[in-house]
Every structure is written in structure tokens, then in C-alpha cells.
Design a protein that fits this description.
- This protein has seven helices and eleven strands.
- Helix 2 runs antiparallel to helix 3.
């Protein structure tokens, strides 16, 4: 969901993206906002106001679970899959190694007994790092003492692939506890989303980095852990059948005109 290097270069897709930002993304109906996010996760919308590009490749295997999470009324905005990658960047002549912990960030818009049970279940899971920000109280709760919990690290060397192992790690993506709780406040192009989301923002992360050398032993499936907690809380999938006819019509008009869905770069 995050950290995507893809850019939207095709002017037709750029125009469609701006059109959606100025119209359908202004809805104050939470079911419709969830529906728009599901269209994005399915690859039918090229971008969202909070993420100006398509899903990152490491999030593609998570699509079905992400869609199910939305059925229960949780609005995801960020995350990544587990990843361990080594290689060589020909442009910079650098050998590199990247490790990621799986994580997901989402919003809860209601304060029901089931939602409270969900949050308590997540907070007490010893296999997860959990940070919960209360929008109304403007405070946060966490089950870790680390104020900057790293989920992505990278190291490199221009000497050789073996030399990479002796290099220090550079820390990139971090969960910043309360510093990240109100992340969407900085997104001016999504004004109604902040008005609809009034309760909690949640960050969930695994404890271990992906490591192909140990077959990723000990890695938690963050999305499945969230779904298990959702079901245990008694929440119902009341948004599973949410619709947004205006969004469907806008997408269909683009398809009828260009004979394809809006993507990062359309074929000519």
C-alpha cells in the first residue's frame, strides 16, 4: 500500500485521477469511502488522495484479505508485505539488501463494544506491535516502548555483494507512535475523509524482518491476525455490500472512452 515508486505518467490517467479527487472522494458517506478504497485495492482506481499511485508489488498478494478487512468497516491507508531482497543497482553501481517487517495501518470510525474488544485484542497480541491513536483524545496507546519502531531497513556497498553484510543498516520506514497518528491531517486533497473518521487510527506490525535465509520463520501474517481479531470481536461485515453508483459510472465512462481501465501508463 505504501512506498510505491510507480508514477502516473499518462495524461489521461492523470486527468481521471484529478477528476475523482474533485468529485467522488468528497463524499461523506463512509460506505462509499470504503467502496472507493476497495476499487483502488482491486486496481480499478489508479490512486487515492492519500497515496498518489497504485499498490506496491509486495501488497498485491494481500488484496483479498484487505478487501475483507474493509467489509468490516476498517479503512486501510498504509502498509507493506514481508520482503527480503538483495540485488545490484546498475545505475548507482551499488549492491544492496532490503528487509521489511509486515505492517498495516487503518482507521476505525466507531466506538462500539465490538470495536473496543478488537482494539484490546490487538493490543494484547504478543506477536504484534500495536499503536492506537485516539482522534478525539489526541493521544496514543502502544504495547511497545519504542517511539520509532522500524519496519524497513536497507544497506549497500559499491564494493561487492559480500561487502554488503558488513555495512550498517539504514532505517527507512518507521512507525512513530503519536507522530504518525494524525498523518492524514497533512493531506489537503482528502478533506471529507478526516471529517468522517472520528475515532481511532491503528498501526500493526510484525516483530521480525523477512529473512530468506531462515525461510521467514517466526513472521506473523498481520492481515490474518487482524481478521482473526475482527471475527473474535463479534464485528459484522456490514459494509460488504456497500455501493457507489456514481463512482462506477465514472469508471465505466473512462473504460468506454479508452477501452481500458485507468492505469499507471496506458497503452497507446
Amino acid at each position: 500500500m505504501s512506498n510505491n515508486s510507480n508514477t502516473i505518467d499518462d495524461p489521461r490517467t492523470q486527468g481521471f485521477m484529478r477528476q475523482t479527487f474533485n468529485t467522488i472522494w468528497y463524499t461523506r458517506d463512509y460506505g462509499q469511502l470504503l467502496y472507493l478504497n476497495k476499487l483502488f485495492i482491486k486496481g480499478l482506481l489508479p490512486a487515492t488522495p492519500y497515496h498518489l499511485g497504485p499498490l506496491h508489488d509486495d501488497s498485491v498478494p494481500l488484496v483479498q484479505k484487505l478487501l475483507r478487512i474493509h467489509d468490516y468497516g476498517l479503512f486501510t491507508t498504509d502498509g507493506q508485505g514481508a520482503l527480503h531482497k538483495t540485488g545490484h543497482n546498475a545505475k548507482s553501481s551499488e549492491f544492496y539488501e532490503i528487509q521489511q517487517k509486515p505492517y498495516i495501518s487503518f482507521y476505525v470510525t466507531y466506538n462500539t463494544p465490538e470495536a473496543v474488544t478488537l482494539l484490546r485484542t490487538l493490543m494484547s497480541n504478543p506477536a504484534l506491535v500495536c499503536v492506537i491513536g485516539s482522534v478525539k483524545e489526541r493521544t496514543y496507546y502502544s504495547n511497545t516502548l519504542q517511539r520509532r519502531y522500524n519496519v524497513t531497513r536497507e544497506r549497500g556497498s559499491t564494493v561487492s555483494a559480500d561487502a554488503v553484510q558488513s555495512q550498517p543498516w539504514g532505517l527507512f520506514t518507521n512507525l512513530h507512535s503519536n507522530a504518525e497518528v494524525y498523518k492524514l491531517n497533512e493531506v489537503e486533497v482528502c478533506p471529507t475523509l478526516l471529517q468522517v473518521i472520528t475515532e481511532y487510527q491503528v498501526h500493526l506490525a510484525g516483530l521480525e524482518y523477512a529473512d530468506n535465509n531462515n525461510n521467514n520463520e517466526g513472521l506473523v501474517d498481520v492481515e490474518q491476525a487482524l481478521l482473526d481479531a475482527i471475527q473474535a470481536s463479534g464485528m459484522s461485515p456490514k459494509y460488504a455490500n456497500a455501493t457507489f453508483p456514481e463512482a462506477d459510472a465514472m469508471l465505466q465512462q473512462f473504460v468506454d472512452t479508452h477501452k481500458t481501465i485507468p492505469t499507471t501508463e496506458l497503452s497507446q
